[in-house]
Predict the structure.
Amino acid sequence: MTADSTPPAKRPVQVTVRIQSSDFDISDEIGALTAGRADVGAVASFTGLCRDEGGRLSALELEHYPGMAERAIRAIAEEAAERFELTGLTAIHRYGKIAPGGNIVLVVACASHRQAAFDGAAFLMDYFKTDAPFWKKEHLKDGGAGEWVSAKDADDKAKARWRSRS
Amino acid sequence: MTADSTPPAKRPVQVTVRIQSSDFDISDEIGALTAGRADVGAVASFTGLCRDEGGRLSALELEHYPGMAERAIRAIAEEAAERFELTGLTAIHRYGKIAPGGNIVLVVACASHRQAAFDGAAFLMDYFKTDAPFWKKEHLKDGGAGEWVSAKDADDKAKARWRSRS
Amino acid sequence: MSLKVVYFAWVRERIGKGSEELELPESVVTVGDLIAHLATLGEEYAAAFEVPQVIRAAIDEEHAGHDEAIGNAREIALFPPMTGG
Amino acid sequence: MSLKVVYFAWVRERIGKGSEELELPESVVTVGDLIAHLATLGEEYAAAFEVPQVIRAAIDEEHAGHDEAIGNAREIALFPPMTGG
């Protein structure tokens, strides 16, 4: 009876943003957002990994703008948390040299229901691609000088869809 | 040079489906789909957890149709893997009594690019909600007899959107 | 015709058993016919099938509509809308 | 006016440094003015800013368009389109 008349106070949203050279573990990150809570029904995650592009690459090197990166990502993460009514959101972006198969980026979005969790994670990834101050340079397996990865039109379109919906 | 003229053979798609009472670990499941591969750039996951519905529930009990469950989920998983050109897909659904905060379902979809991974995971979850032969019964914290959870119209609509796109 | 019929969730609870072997009259051709026939077998069946249109079915572990013929099926499952995921 | 300008990715590589303190002429009001001014400072700058419209900017760590005034900014960053994620 008490449970119906006095619903428990709404828990604060946990927003975590980390820019780091070290790797991450997705189980640990999900655990940090769900441990001791019984209001999280849905966890959507996205992990971006380094591909070798058909054997062409030996690594990707990620450069970033340290001061701005965390601030910009935190602003977007807090917008996502509010917009999709998330219970928690973690965003981790690595920098430095990352070999094929290695982790580059992680987003975990928690919510009561699944659509909000999926939308929160996809929204943050779309903004990561277009607005987070990171740049990728290719290192080639044959030792040749690699190119800077070009920004994709598709990413700008992916981001634009969130604007038209709001 | 060889890398350009003879691209490595396309790796087979890994589709794993498990119906189990025991828990799962998402790091292990992602690792099984990405270890030793350099063609996976994107991993989207969804974990469904038991909520206590504002303190009302002590557990959810999941009943399933054993013979049909694995067969139906595997058919849908293989359809998703082909449709979204996934490199791997894992679906795990638990049965039995699960306490608030506990894991119920996991979907992990791997692909070269992020939209395919997100779509694969969301597609499989939508079908899980409407077509997988599982039923949830509530157990109440106050000891009272719980109700069977009702199917949601929203789930049928979520599933229908995939049909209209194809 | 003899058939294994299996029940899940509140269909199972109302009928009071998870499965049974049934002899069916010739008049039962479709899944819908089977549900209508079962509803006549007693109070517990009447309760399970009081709103026939919400009942979902599977023939030999494949989803089936109410208008599908039972044919030579080995096993028919009857259950409420699914709530997995 | 003195300003810290920072460069990233191939803008940094072409100019050959990651940041510098610059004295700017009065005529430099907007980000676009700054880019046009920098392009006159030598071959390496001309190479970095040969296609000005692809250059993105941030004023004091906030994204800024080419028409935005520099005002009393402490730090302007110039870089190619971002490729994070």
In short: The two ends of chain B are 39 Å apart (CA to CA). The CA atoms of residues 53 and 100 of chain B lie 9 Å apart.
